[in-house]
Specification:
Helix content: 40-55%
Radius of gyration: 17 Å
CATH architecture: 3-Layer(aba) Sandwich
Distance between the termini: 50 Å
CATH topology: Rossmann fold
Shape: globular
CATH superfamily: NAD(P)-binding Rossmann-like Domain
Number of domains: 1
Strand order of the largest sheet: 3-2-1-4-5-6-9
CATH class: Alpha Beta
Number of strands: 11
Largest sheet: 7 strands, parallel
Bound molecules: NADP nicotinamide-adenine-dinucleotide phosphate
Order of helices and strands: EHEHEHEHEHEEHHEHEEE
Strand content: 15-25%
């Protein structure tokens, strides 16, 4: 039977690259994100190029009811999900804690922690019913270290790190694999979102060194997902060669 991957945040960056890689490998896909036009376009492209089936489901992961209604509303055949890539996430702002924008904090907590939980709550139950599954959580080097002004974003990714460990323990007896992939700097729309559309400032983040690209992470996620069923990669940190720690980038 053709395998199914559900990828959240497939409208850009790492999620979009994962959609390409899993389609290339013959998976049918459920793609989610808020920008439905992008989802529809991507679905048509992947269907055309790889002859795979693609379902799209457009919702905001922060909205618990939308998550439940949209996912549970999918036809039964789509609930045979083999791989869930919990990728939807973002950073907002880069301010010291005393000046932090509280709306930004709420957005990051609601998206990166609560959104990931809402999706996982639904899909882990499908996986338990199916008797198989693999959940791959997008953490970050920000979930392993804390950097200047990274405060709340780092806290949300530390939470993902903890949830990843907790999920693995809770789902152990159901044979469900659980992995976290923690990237360093990847050039996507991430910095543009962090700096609220300020393209100049976003570009400077990647000045003078070669960052990772979304494809690097997607191929890594595919490697993790394609190990034999008895192998689980718990935790994987992947950095650009020019980046040693969150705050140590060698720029020429
Ligand atoms: N880029 C990096 O340097 C880096 C490093 C480490 C970890 N990460 C993590 O990797 C993941 C993907 O980031 P990226 O770099 O690919 O960024 P990106 O290019 O900005 O893509 C983020 C994706 O998340 C989706 N998303 C954001 N908020 C959402 C919401 N409320 N509801 C539904 N979907 C939402 C976006 O879709 P819509 O806007 O269409 O909803 C988009 O598809 C994130 O979890 C991020 O924290 C990134």
């Amino acid at each position: 039977m053709t395998k199914i991957a559900l990828i959240t945040g497939a409208t850009a960056g790492i999620g979009e690259a994962c959609a390409h890689v899993f389609a290339r490998e013959g998976y049918n896909l459920i793609l989610t994100g808020r920008r439905n036009d992008r989802l529809e376009k991507l679905a048509a492209h992947l269907n055309d190029k790889y002859n795979v089936e693609v379902a799209t489901s457009s919702f905001d992961v922060r909205n618990r009811q939308q998550v439940i209604d949209n996912l549970e509303g999918l036809p039964a055949k789509w609930k045979k999900v083999n791989v869930l890539v919990n990728n939807a996430g973002l950073s907002q702002g880069l301010d010291p804690i005393q000046n932090g924008n509280i709306d930004d904090w709420e957005t990051m907590i609601d998206t990166n922690i609560k959104g990931l939980l809402y999706v996982s709550r639904v899909v882990s139950n499908w996986m338990i019913d199916n008797g198989y599954g693999h959940i791959i959580n997008l953490g970050s080097i920000a979930g392993k270290e804390v950097y200047l002004n990274g405060n709340v974003y780092c806290a949300t990714k530390h939470a993902v790190d903890a949830l990843n460990k907790g999920m693995r323990i809770d789902l152990l007896s159901h044979g469900i694999r659980v992995t976290a992939v923690h990237p360093g700097a990847v050039e996507t729309e991430f910095s543009e979102v962090r700096f609220k559309g300020d393209k100049e400032r976003a570009k400077k983040v990647y000045d003078g060194f070669e960052p990772l690209i979304a494809q690097d992470i997607a191929e890594t996620i595919w490697f993790v997902a394609s190990r034999p069923a008895h192998v689980n990669i718990n935790d994987l940190v992947i950095m650009p060669t020019a980046q040693a720690t969150a705050g140590n980038i060698f720029r020429s």
